[in-house]
Amino acid sequence: MRPVTGERELRGVAVYPDIVIGKAHLIDRSRVKILYQCFVNGEELDREVERFKEAVHTVEDQFVSLKRKMPDKVKDQSFILDSHLMILKDGMLYDSTVKTILKEKINAEWALKKSLEEIREVFEQIDDEYISNRISDVENVTERLLRTLSGDTGQSLGEIDQRVIIVAHDLSPADTTELNTARVMGFITDVGGKTSHTAIMAQALEIPAVVGLESATALVEDGDLLIVDGSSGVVVINPDDSAIIHYQEKKLQLQKYKSSIARTSHLPAETPDGCRVAITANIEFLEEVTAAKDYGGEGIGLYRTEFLYLRGKGFPEEEDLFDDYREVVEIMNPAPVTIRTLDLGGDKFASEIAISGESNPALGLRAIRFCLREPEIFKAQLRAILRASLYGKIQLMFPMISGLQELLDAKQILEQVKEELDRDNIEYDTNMEVGIMVEIPSAVAMAEVLARHVDFFSIGTNDLIQYALAIDRINEHVAYMYEPFHPAILRMIRQVVKAARDAGIEVALCGEMAGDPLCVSILLGNGIDRLSMNARSIPLIKKMVRTIPMKQAKADLKKIMALNTAKEVRAYILEGTKRMFPELEEKGYLLD
Fold this sequence. Notes:
- The chain is an alpha/beta fold.
- The chain has 3 domains: about 10-30 and about 155-260, Phosphohistidine domain (Glucose Oxidase, domain 1, 3-Layer(bba) Sandwich), CATH 3.50.30.10; about 40-150, Enzyme I, Chain A, domain 2, CATH 1.10.274.10; about 265-585, Phosphoenolpyruvate-binding domains (TIM Barrel), CATH 3.20.20.
- About 45% of the residues lie in helices and about 15% in strands.
- It has helices at about 40-70, 80-90, 95-105, 110-125, 130-150, 175, 195-205, 215-220, 240-265, 290-295, 305-310, 320-330, 370-375, 375-390, 405-425, 440-445, 445-450, 460-470, 485-505, 520-525, 540-545, 550-560, 565-580, 580-585; strands spanning about 10, 15, 20-25, 165-170, 185-190, 210, 225-230, 235, 280-285, 300-305, 335-340, 395-400, 435-440, 455-460, 505-510, 530-535.
- The strands form 2 sheets. An 8-stranded mixed sheet has the order 1-8-7-3-4-5-6-2. An 8-stranded parallel β-barrel has the order 9-10-11-12-13-14-15-16, surrounded by 4 helices.
């Protein structure tokens, strides 16, 4: 331990395991000062309502633009801006503000302020960290609306032109989207927690950050020298020489550890007792393929294909899809690429495609349901995938299959497309494997039947947890209950694996669990054949697989399956992981 010195230390919530030393740059995110105005004239009130609606439209355009310009590193977190877009039109904010303007005859700014206060009162009645963090999202959206109404756009973080550490009361996801990581070395905030969207964005950007410091903006002055330790949650203000030397050495050790993991990332993921597991990458964009290879990915386990449908108006042409798929396959060849067919709807925002706005979109027209309802759109994508299969190994995967009939209907359309290609003398891989995402409880229950009609399963734990536990991942009131260690989820995974084994087909897993260090032993013990994850997680997960004997993983799983609560499961796994990989906690990889 470094001896205590005279410099001031703050402790908050560690977000990303890295250390940075640099000068502070304070960002003024103080609330917009608004004035109360009262109107009598009906035309004036109508004008206020119109001002508010125009502000909503302007902010909506800003969010859509920011989403499209998001750096590749944070593309996977675009759902955060989607949730902010939904907040804009939420009745508690939008409808309430309009009603307040007309009922109380006041200006849009004051009415919006009152709506926020009412929402905050509702949130304050619930004592939960996750939900308290979600109110900050509502506040961020409201603040942007107020700035738009007042004409004060505030300082853009994209305009920072020096190497600095940002100090702010809070940063919205829109703020972090604008960060130039070539200039911004890291950031610290007064508020926020480990589940806040600001924390999630920092992890995606891979920059050191500490949130929830409470008084950072009051104690730090512009230009102060700071040390930000994103592995322990410590911030040192104006450190002395001994502190600087201590943290420089700690940073060097952390970098050495990361490098040691990276050096072995291209080795196969094989347990000490000889069991192989394929470690592949989840991607959403063509540009991510190179990173998948660089991090040691043994293929693409999940290619989400929605981006080409979201980046412009209407649907992409078959040739555009074909060119994209072919390039991905050619770059990865001979490694396999698993392409998931179109999965729009639910929590996937599609501003240019009129399928949203349902009362419960997660249970509505999305994924395979949408494709079966719009067969021509579906066929265009299937043609593009089949044509691209000639340039490498493609596996085709249907999402959100709830039962056998949906699968048979989808396969029938696939056969029709094959017949059309045959008539046109267009070649394709006639042996292309076809599988399904198992992400709905009914599919788990029918896994034994479904396994007889496909070449592989891929368990999508993100949606499986959502549907099995009745948890809306983007509903701030219940998303904190989203629990991968729930015994019901573990039993579902085991049931799907057994059905796959009995049918002699491969079973993969491509949800967030695949890249979670705490889940490695469970998934190994279950006998998952392939884990697919964010490319950045591959080196560490490979290292863990090469360290954990399969015999031990199976023994641990047997004990875990006897536990009855998610809390018990998590505690058992956390203790075992810390015991076997003590450096993970020390280096900040077990932030939970």
